[in-house]
Design brief:
Blueprint lengths: L1 H35 L2 H18 L6 H7 L5 H24 L1 H8 L4 H8 L2 H17 L3 H24 L4 H22 L10 H35 L2 H35 L4 H28 L1 H9 L6 H11 L2 H14 L3 H25 L1 H27 L3 H28 L4 H23 L2 H19 L1
Helix pairs in contact: 1-8, 1-11, 2-10, 2-11, 3-7, 3-10, 4-7, 4-10, 5-6, 7-9, 8-9, 10-11, 10-16, 11-12, 11-14, 11-15, 12-14, 12-15, 12-18, 12-19, 12-20, 13-19, 14-17, 15-17, 16-17, 18-19
Length: about 475
């Protein structure tokens, strides 16, 4: 038990450090590129990446998740998945390349054709590192993953900025994406202890297929419904509008990744290891939810109150239309990380059947909300997304409670408490700055300090379980770092 806890804490610390450094590096690169390039350039790339993101799911078809979830994995399983991924990736690259004209016609943007053709190579590049990445995650070796991600992000950032400074325009974004995948492959292959053997077995794939196929369907639904808004906005509205929306959504996603990405990345392999010890399993889930709620609501609340200052200071006033999108996305942002934890409950215990059923129910809610986008525009769609987030979390709680035997009230309590504290602190902060005005930078730091102080102060005052769990979780990590 202590060994797993130590590995889990170490994995969390390294994955969080990795996201902080890697995405921090990417964020700095994005700031430079956003100031040098037009919103329409980002819109063009978003149009392509939505299609690539959906198609990318087919290169793995859930076999990566099956490798992590399966308790006994042999070398033949890894090698078979590797060669299968390469085969599917080659097919997808070919199909994507010859479909360039059709994609351009769909968006009514002829300049997309050469961009699509060049980016088609991403499927093959990503497939070469997928099994190494999966194996390191299964082993909780996030220290190595962190180093690989940081190096590839840094080098690709240099490529992107250099090209933008030399007037490459939208092509600087294209080659930044491609070079990141190339650098990632070069580094992970040079440091990985695993290499594929010429050993392919359909039997090994079939052993992974029953779990992997349902995970693939759920992953496909997730890929479609997290990206289809890009596709619809790109089709229905000007390309610059898509650029504004993409900037807001990417920044919101960055905050969500900082708040929960590391915890979610580590939770699936950890829960898979203790899936047969129900009492221990329940304890990990409840503790994780308390920690997650505290982190998510303090970060999203801080994002909401400082959205205007963030956009104007970092990206300049040409990105001002992104502010309202960023605020509305922050309102619904809690749904994804909390849902991600709760669906891990189903997937880690091998219940891919309920996992798929749950995902289909949630996606039906998103489908209804897309009518808002068709008939009422982006802002109404984003308001609808807030409602969908509440309903999705409710469905996740019902399914997770059934699977684990944990009472629904135990799931609801930390969510309701931290959400309520966040609302109070947000309203107080906004009211204070409604009465007082200052410079952009002064407003940003003052708002952050005021909101954070109130949020932590109220948690201290009421001695919330979330704050207690945060202290218990962080203390051994700090002690270990100090002792080292």
């Amino acid at each position: 038990m202590n060994d797993l806890k130590s590995k889990s804490l170490n994995a969390f610390a390294w994955d969080f450090l990795g996201k902080l450094s890697t995405q921090g590096m990417s964020f700095i690169v994005t700031i430079f590129l956003a100031r040098m390039l037009a919103p329409s350039d980002f819109g063009l790339i978003a149009m392509i990446m939505v299609v690539i993101g959906i198609a990318q799911v087919f290169t793995d078809i859930g076999l990566g998740s099956a490798l992590i979830q399966r308790r006994k994995v042999l070398p033949v399983h890894y090698s078979s998945v590797f060669f299968f991924n390469i085969l599917i990736a080659c097919i997808l690259s070919f199909v994507f390349y010859i479909s360039a004209d059709y994609i351009a016609q769909f968006y009514e943007q002829n300049k997309l054709v050469p961009l699509v053709q060049v980016l088609s190579v991403l499927f093959v590049l990503n497939a070469f590192s997928s099994v190494q990445n999966t194996k390191l995650r299964k082993e909780l070796n996030y220290r190595l993953l962190t180093k690989v991600n940081f190096i590839s992000s840094f080098l690709s950032g240099v490529v992107g900025i250099s090209l933008a400074l030399n007037g490459a325009g939208v092509w600087s974004l294209v080659y930044q994406v491609i070079s990141q995948s190339i650098f990632y492959n070069l580094v992970i292959w040079s440091v990985s202890s695993w290499f594929p053997k010429l050993n392919f077995s359909f039997k090994a794939l079939r052993q992974l297929w029953s779990f992997g196929f349902r995970m693939f369907l759920a992953g496909l639904l997730e890929a479609i419904f997290t990206r289809i808004d890009y596709l619809l906005i790109g089709k229905l509205l000007p390309v610059a509008t898509l650029g504004y929306f993409q900037r807001a959504k990417q920044f919101n996603s960055l905050v969500i990744q900082y708040s929960s990405g590391s915890l979610m990345s580590v939770m699936f392999p950890v829960l898979s290891k203790v899936q047969n010890d129900l009492a221990r399993y329940q304890n990990i889930v409840v503790k994780s939810l308390n920690i997650l709620c505290f982190i998510v609501f303090i970060l999203l609340g801080g994002l909401y109150v400082t959205a205007n200052e963030i956009v104007l200071f970092l990206f300049s006033d040409k990105w001002l239309p992104s502010v309202i999108y960023l605020k509305l996305l922050a309102l619904s942002g809690f749904g994804y990380p909390i849902s991600a934890l709760l669906v891990n409950v189903l997937s880690s215990r091998g219940n891919s059947k309920d996992f798929l059923r749950l995902e289909m129910l949630k996606k039906s809610l998103h489908t209804l909300n897309f009518f808002n986008l068709f008939y009422n525009g982006i802002e109404f769609y984003l308001y609808g997304l807030v409602v969908v987030s509440f309903l999705s979390v409710s469905l996740n709680i019902l399914f997770a409670s059934k699977e684990t035997g944990i009472k629904i009230t135990k799931f609801l309590k930390p969510i309701v408490i931290q959400f309520s504290i966040c609302i109070v602190c947000t309203l107080c902060t906004l009211y204070a700055f409604y009465l007082v005005e200052g410079s952009l930078i002064l407003n940003f730091f003052t708002k952050i300090i005021l909101f954070t102080t109130m949020f932590i102060g109220i948690n201290l005052l009421f001695k919330t379980a979330s704050l207690i769990e945060i202290k218990l979780f962080v203390k051994p990590i700090i002690q270990k770092r100090i002792s080292n």
